[in-house]
Amino acid sequence: MAQAGAVLPRVDLAQYLQDFPEEFVERYSRLIPDFADFLKVTGTASRKTIRVNTLKATKQEVVDWLGDLGPEALPWWDLAFGIRDVEGIGKRLGHFLGLFYIQDAASMIPPLVLDPKPEETVLDLAAAPGSKTTQISAMMQNTGLLIANDSSSRRVRGLVGNVDRAGCLNVAVCRMDGNRIGRLLENSCDRVLVDAPCTCEGTIRKSHQVLNRWSVSAIQRFSRLQNGLIVSGFRALRPGGLMVYSTCTIAPEENEGVVTYLLSKFPNAFVLPIELPGFVMRPALDTWKGESFPEPVRHCRRILPQDNDTEGFFLALIRKGDAEAG
Length: 326
What we know:
326 residues; alpha/beta; Rossmann fold; 4-stranded antiparallel beta sheet; 13 helices; globular; disordered N terminus; RNA-binding; Methyltr_RsmF_N
């Protein structure tokens, strides 16, 4: 299901499979119909992409800054560009000044689906290192209030640095357990992003260390954490507000399973369809290991690396209805 015209790399699959835990291969060869294509593309780095930071520069100014890297506009968003991958791009003056942000294309999708508006109150519940926070801030045109939260002091320091470099003036950074912030902000946010910590299976192209840390027990541990975070994010949402739940993993327990958990707790949670013309996304699973997911979960979307030359992601768009009705 790779994007039309995409050329998959040549990879010796027999040799390459030795890098993968046997249980990983057994699980995902059943989940991904074109598993051989998945393996081929994860043996290569994803295309280098950047996002124009409209708080500091115009699209044309950034294209001029990066002219020697052959910036190529991507078809699904006019502020996303593919560039040649060269050493030291992060040390260029334009990056230091915050004119653009180096960001995998799939990582740009959750804020686009969330679609924040100027003057709104938005919560980014697990915000560090700040790629999506700074994107949301720019989409809000530096107005309203964007609460960027993370539970780690170390990660918050990096978040603050990226927010400052991008010139985001509408961002309030805080450090709090994501499970608690929903109670504090109950029914107060127009939009919420829960880009949850996960097993990062979708980022194998970036680092094969992901495979060294991979286990089914880690999936189960993260899914319990994610259950708490998605509930907390939903509590912070006002009636009628929208929440995006996203991960960079493939595991159904961390994706469809977490959305199913939310639906079981809140009858006023409604999963909405997701579309982004020009970007290939696959429907969510309807079953996994004998468990059937509720029909609305099919509205969620999966992003696989071989379809758009990106990392892997999962997305759910959820609307909060009134307590009694949608």
